[in-house]
Amino acid sequence: MGTPCEGCSLDNHGVFHPCAEEIQKWMQKAFEMAKDALDNGEVPVGCLMVYNNEILGRGRNEVNETKNATRHAEMVAIDQVLEWCHCNDKDPGDVFERTVLYVTVEPCIMCAGALRLLRIPLVVYGCKNDRFGGCGSVLDIPADNLPQTGAPFKCISGYRAEEAVEMLKMFYKQENPNAPKSKARKKD
Amino acid sequence: MEPQRKRRKTEESDTFLWEVLPVLSEELSQGIEFLQAYAAPIINKKDTSHLVKKLAAMYPLEGLQHIKRVRACRDKHSPHPLEIIVCLASDLNSKEEGGTIPSITALLHNSESDCTGLGEPFLVQIPAFPPLTRPQFEEASRHWPTSFHEDKQVTVALKGELFSKDEKATMQKYMEQAIEAAKAGKEEGMASVGALIVDPDIDAVLAVAHDCRNSPNPLLHAVMVCIDLIAHGQGGGAYNYKKYPACHFVPTDASHYLANDNSLPSVNLSSLEQATESGLPYICTGYDLYVTREPCVMCAMALVHSRIRRVFFGVISSDGALGTKYKIHTKKDLNHRFEVFKGVMEQDCQKLSQL
Question: Which PROSITE patterns does this UniProt record tie to the protein (chain B) (predicted)?
Answer without folding.
Answer: CYT_DCMP_DEAMINASES_2 (PS51747)
